[in-house]
Amino acid sequence: MNTTTLNFDQFVPATIENVWNFFSNPENLGLITPPSMNFRIISDWNENVKMFEGQEISYTVSPLFHIPLKWITVITKVERNKLFVDEQKSGPYKLWVHQHVFEEVENGVVMRDILTYAIPFGLIGTLIDKLIVYKKVNDIFFYRKNKIDEIFKQPAEII
């Protein structure tokens, strides 16, 4: 299986508690996802329930060509205020593992996203990744970075 791993670091000028509470709430994912992707959580979600290992989150999203897809992720690891990992249970990828790592630093938090994914369909999937998916995923994270800057009200440092 041919995998791609991407790393994105961003400084967030907020407390670790505020950053953790924002990113560990799946409802906020819609705020930092490009509107063109039509992201919508379809599973029942209770804000009072803290993120936990084994938690499943179902949503619809249109990653390419405005075609809506159902995607289910499972939270596979949680270390409060440090990291969580979501993995695709079902969806468009052959593999999707997204690590969200939070490091408290002076005046804020460095948030690190480590994403490993693979496209199905063998060599054709590898070509699709190189021609379309890789750029699309990078564009999504660029949008996300700008929205996080806006939400937390300070231009991010590029690390």
Automatic annotation (TrEMBL):
InterPro entries: START-like_dom_sf
Domain of life: Bacteria
Matches recorded under Gene3D superfamilies: 3.30.530.20
Name assigned to this protein: SRPBCC family protein
